[in-house]
Amino acid sequence: METFKDVISGDQLVLVDFFATWCQPCKMMHPILTQVKEVLGESIRIIKVDVDQHSATASLYRVQSVPTLMLFRQGEVLWRTSGAMQKSELLATIDPFLKP
């Protein structure tokens, strides 16, 4: 079984959505993340981490509010933000991190 560390440690760009089921802005992000994945396809992997079910992981990355979005490559945090974002803003943020 693939672990969180396995996923973020690879060469592929990984967008992690730290969320909670009770969080309204998190619910707003779900369709936006789906659309971002449709645009970027295999160039990015998007995973969701429920902070209530995986509190140790959330704590390790000092996630204090949800949603928190983080970009990883080779285990390194490349970018992070908290709060909901528009699709265009998220795509513009991710673009410089995509490999040519």
Describe this structure in words.
It is a single chain. The protein is of the alpha+beta class and 100 residues long. The protein has one domain (4-79): Glutaredoxin (3-Layer(aba) Sandwich). It is 36% helix and 27% strand. A four-stranded mixed beta sheet has the order 2-1-3-4. The protein is globular, with a radius of gyration of 13 Å.
Main beta sheet: strand number and arrangement?
Answer: 4 strands, mixed
> How far apart lie the N and C ends?
30 Å
Number of domains: 1
- The percentage helix is 25-40%
Which CATH top level class fits?
Alpha Beta
CATH topology: Glutaredoxin
Q: Report the average pLDDT across residues.
A: 96
Envelope shape:
globular
Please state roughly what percent of the residues sit in beta strands, choosing from under 5%, 5-15%, 15-25%, 25-35%, 35-45% or over 45%. Answer: 25-35%
